[in-house]
Batch of 2 targets.
Target 1
Amino acid sequence: MARRPLTKPRKAASQERSRATVDALVEATARILVKEGFDKASTNRIAEVAGVSVGSLYQYFPGKEALVVSVIERHQQETMQTVRGELAEVLAQPVEKAVRTLIAVAVKAHRVDPKLHRVIAEQIPRVGKLEKVGTFSHENYMLFRTYLEGHRDELRVTDLELASFVCVTSIEALTHNAVLH
Amino acid sequence: MARRPLTKPRKAASQERSRATVDALVEATARILVKEGFDKASTNRIAEVAGVSVGSLYQYFPGKEALVVSVIERHQQETMQTVRGELAEVLAQPVEKAVRTLIAVAVKAHRVDPKLHRVIAEQIPRVGKLEKVGTFSHENYMLFRTYLEGHRDELRVTDLELASFVCVTSIEALTHNAVLH
DNA sequence: ACAGAATATGAGCGATTATTCGCTTTTGAT
DNA sequence: ATCAAAAGCGAATAATCGCTCATATTCTGT
């Protein structure tokens, strides 16, 4: 009952060539998502656009969903990269200034790759393995909440939890819609 | 070149039995959307859950998208039904009171069928024929805007367009997230 | 009771999709 | 130069999907 060694090695890239393949696949997935939409992103199509065979795709990804997850994660990392600096500064700012910076940051984050962001936010069905992918909102909520705790004396509100919820949700929705429409 | 009469009669229900079939199909679609997600909603599956044959499905709906549109429209009508009254009262209220009523209305609207609402708002890909289905936001935006115009003298803001955008977007996002989590 | 219209059925066709596997090519270490 | 491991290939298989149509059942007016 020996398990097939040929089918197992999903996701293990040690040489440089293979890393390039993985990259090409993720990039192709993103391009298709943006230009043709989620349901046109079939495994065969992705491999074709990436200039790679389907077989190679399945050597590194267990399926289409895994590709999409990779795209989302890559986009989130890129976004954070361009925003991390400003986000650190906020901590030392008074609320008055902080909210303005945060809005600026939110806008900047949405501008990294608006089209991809839109697809991720509006077109990817949040089911199966896709629903587990952490959203921005939650991360932002935590950050904002700890900031408020550190500046509690500047505020009139007592329920920081509620305040965070209201602010993060509003800012997120506003910037999202503003940048996209 | 006679056109096939057998294929045409999509969507025409005169007897009661057929109306029940149509209802069962729409209901089944809604149930699948909520419990299994959009991409599990195949025509075969819908027919099966509805206790109807695929053939009957195609007698009344040209395809899966039409079913989904029906579900959305039915949900929007149901929502409006439970909210129409309060919405009419708002027009006569001063801003101070009006915003509170509007938020109450928004919450009530989201409570009609939260799970279905979520699927419609977050999971249905806005592509193809589905993207033409009018969203709530736009309708609400228009209503709110005309209200503001009627009460311009009570306000300090000049850009009613922007004010509407900010208010509608925020309220929508807040109630949506609040009811769901 | 009967005919024709309306409604329902489901096996099955063609297209598309995901996924596999035997095989070839490339790479890196010796 | 040699060879085993790593990476790559793509025709082939299997599953699923949307959809049709020949046929069967039910309804409705007379």
Target 2
Amino acid sequence: MAFSNQLNTFPQPGHDHDLCTSEALKIAEERCRSLGLRFTPLRRRVLEIVWAQHGPAGAYDILGKLRDDKQNAAPPTVYRALEFLVKNGFVHKIESLNAFVGCGSSGKNHSGQFLICGKCNQVGELDDTEIAAVIEKKAKRLGFKVARPTVEVLGLCETCDTAANG
Amino acid sequence: MAFSNQLNTFPQPGHDHDLCTSEALKIAEERCRSLGLRFTPLRRRVLEIVWAQHGPAGAYDILGKLRDDKQNAAPPTVYRALEFLVKNGFVHKIESLNAFVGCGSSGKNHSGQFLICGKCNQVGELDDTEIAAVIEKKAKRLGFKVARPTVEVLGLCETCDTAANG
DNA sequence: TTTCTTTATGTTATAATGTAGCATTTATTT
DNA sequence: AAATAAATGCTACATTATAACATAAAGAAA
């Protein structure tokens, strides 16, 4: 399957937003089927909402959106769906923002590396093996066994930087 | 000034805990004086409490301890002191734990790199220029201007790993 | 010194984020 | 069809963090 849009790295201003979402949903659906995971309507809907933002979404933002078509939704509704989506690699939690973003490379490597623009709040996913390798190497040197490495880089994306400084 | 104890990297089981604390306080005091910052009794006490744990401390844990000798302390009391301490590099916030640890290298580089043991909850500070450089390089390649890079590695420290797997 | 100004702290209330626990429903297996 | 397991509904609550305004303390200017 070939996808026309970049699900990785930093999202470009003019990119096709809806296409990202529909591709992500399709990938999740397929992957769940092949793994025997239950991609329920609720989980699907939450994933859709997360992607619709194409930027970090707080759990309560998601809850608000979810309530548009599901009035009885409560915090656990969202948190449980997110738990499933995060556990299975369809969504990442950005710890420094207490927010969630769709994973641009579900199923592949999951290094958990993010570029967070402090201006437009967009998040780019890096998934860089060299970064992962250096972290692994240095940790190992200290006898530390790496389980889940996280890199969250706050800064300024190219678009915002250009807009600000020419 | 030479310090006998390792304020950096992963704390060893037998290390002199109190010495870490007193050294960290001394460093903070000196640095504040030289920079014209106000190292008030409250801020000093909060820093002391953070170091006393020698592991990540939640804001409300700190508040509890603070109340032992300051009954009227409230959340803003602690959060404001922490804000000062973080801003000036004496304390780091571990985003993935919503907790705070004393900075082992106040005043030097502040790469914000942490090894977090999921077993004993100890946190080691890395401060590795190679890791920082790779992140910087890869971000730059995407036109991203790095402001504050954070690396939080969840895993198992040598002590816990040895204890578990021989 | 005395006043002015800034910075820090006190205090109350509330916002934002996240979970526990148990009932009910829906799916899967036997 | 019955039994089991998984997911969701739902209430209540726990944890983390901040807003807003009053007071006090420190530093700068007169």
